[in-house]
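Person: I have long wanted to understand how a fold can be written as tokens. Underneath my words sits a plain record pairing an amino acid chain with its backbone structure tokens. Those tokens are not coordinates but codes from a learned vocabulary of shapes. I should like you to check that the lines agree and flag anything odd. The protein I mean follows directly.
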Amino acid sequence: MTPSARLAAAASVLDSISQSRQPAEAVLKAWGQQNRYAGSKDRRAVADRVYRVLRARGRLVWAMGGREDGRALVIGSLSLIDGLPLDEIEALHSGEGYGPRPLSKQERSRITVPAGELPGWVAAGLPEFVVEDFKATFGERWVEEGHELMAPRAPIDLRVNGAIATIEEVEAELRAAGLSPERTPWSEWGLRLTSEPPPNIQALDGFKAGRFEIQDEGSQLACWLAGAQAGTTVVDYCAGGGGKTLGLAQAMAGQGTLVAGDVVQKRLNNIRPRLERAGIEADLRLLGQNGGGIEDLNHQADLVFVDAPCSGSGTWRRHPEDAWRLTPDEVERLHALQLRILGQAAQLVRPGGRLVFVTCSMLSRENEATADAFEAAHGDFRPVPIADALAAPGLTDAGRARLGELALGHRLRLSPAAAGTDGFFVALYERTA
């Protein structure tokens, strides 16, 4: 493919992403399958352009006068991201072959007229409607928090399965495969890989054998702080893909009763091969919309872990397309859903047992506001200070110190800027009666 053809392809992929709810990665994969003539370098170049545009989408839409189509965003990226002069951009838009058509007068003017001072939300790279939330939560650091959430490409974190491998063994295995792993600073079972170029982790023998899993360090920390122990009954109430289920199992050292529930059977089916690969047993339960399917554990669980549905805004550095799909109405819907789910999950906790509320969101409506409302409605649950959970296995000494600094009582916020992880919120509770 010529450079011009790659630009046209990127614009087409961007339009497909805007018109669907599929992840950008899935849309790019489908494009590659439908265009077999595109070689690996072509596919990588198109993907790189698409992700660079998605990360800077707010700035590009603003610079291109409000246009959101793929063509306008690509043109804007050539000027604002690549820094190409007008004559080079016009040469790439000659209309010849499979390249894009020539620039219009309006397009030419948008990339030649100085853009002026960027509004704060544009500079931070955030959707405009979340700005006031970020300002209230992060104060003067809100632009930095937004930039780190949206701009950099995230690394790939792995969690070593301590039941069948040591971190040293996996580290050596990855180096033998030509990779350069680094220890994660806060989780003692974590290894970090650069995502440039992104390695195919699932093709590695160690992954297939269950010696390690892909799991962001922040997600690992949430598992360790939960306080799962060997010989106890642990419920992963919203198991999803099962990543945290596996982390909780590791904290339990394979001893006790582990129950993973979800309202979608397909998600539970997808957990089964992960459990088998890791050598872990768990009781998988399909839950009804009102929490049915797990009543036999009411007031029986030592730990109920609620990784509640949320916007996923803490993972925007991995899925930047999701930032531009989120709406205020969806955030409100998720807040209400979280409260209902927490109320259902709370019934499972025995007196003296622990309830853990977790999200991968950066938004206070899905984090602090949900925690506030739960606490107001459930006087039989007392907050457990994060400091009381820092002795849990799985944390490095540096991790204990850093998490202690970031904690606010029984609540903890992690973010790319503050911790180098995806964005997470954790709140700990204990049932008193």
